[in-house]
Fold this sequence. Notes:
Layout: E1 4-8, E2 20-26, E3 30-35, E4 37-40, E5 43-47, E6 56-64, E7 71-79, H1 84-94, H2 99-104, H3 107-111, H4 115-131, H5 156-162, H6 166-173, H7 192-198, H8 202-209, E8 223-228, E9 231-236, E10 241-247
Antiparallel strand pairs: 1-5, 2-3, 2-6, 3-10, 4-5, 6-7, 8-9, 9-10
Helix pairs in contact: 1-4, 4-6, 5-6, 5-7, 6-8, 7-8
Amino acid sequence: GDSVITVELTEEDKVEDDVVFYLVFTGSTVQHCTSTRKINPGSLETISPGHDCCETVKVALCASREGHPVLVVAEESFQFVQDEAYDAAQFLATCAGNQQALNFTRFLDRSRPPAADVDFLDEKVALAFRHLKLPAEWNVLGADQSLTENIPRETLMHFAVRLGLLRLTWFLLQQPGGRGALSIHNNEGATPVSLALERGYQKLHQLLTEEEAREPDSWSTLSHTVHSGDYSVKHHRGLDVYMLTAEA
């Protein structure tokens, strides 16, 4: 999701300014309707939806004009593929609370990837996480909620903070168990908060310690989503386009 899509109109489809174009993506269980913005008389821009599964969907370009019926201008197929970010998010989501798996992820820390790679990883994995269908009972601390905070263990929050993943940390903070993970020590006695301080991640430390900490500025060009039952509305701030997603 959140990739930019460009639509090139044919000569006969270039119409007056009062015509509004939409893209409608129809999958097996979910439908998305996105607004578009005009770059020039022959080109439109919008964002791809974050879909709930990897499949080929039908996408229709629709034109709307006040006082006239909605017209389907063109139809095409669009494929959602499973990439490394999706795999990583699935892996992390399923290994919440799994100590063997979480300790395995610590080898990433030894290679210390360049800042640009970390930023790319952060954005892609956080977006993939936001589009995963997590079970209603999913928790940052894993399935076993009988464990007390006094038992040293590795958590997903330790993983995100150790690599400096600001966006993923913000996402986890909003999930069940996210705040509780901040006070849990791992086997070295470090909490996610102390890890951020030790590594000099100032913005991350601020995010973890300020009660009124706001969404990271680095997400200002990405999307904000509001959920309501089977529907959600997303606003992409960078392009100023909106998307309505509904279960079909």
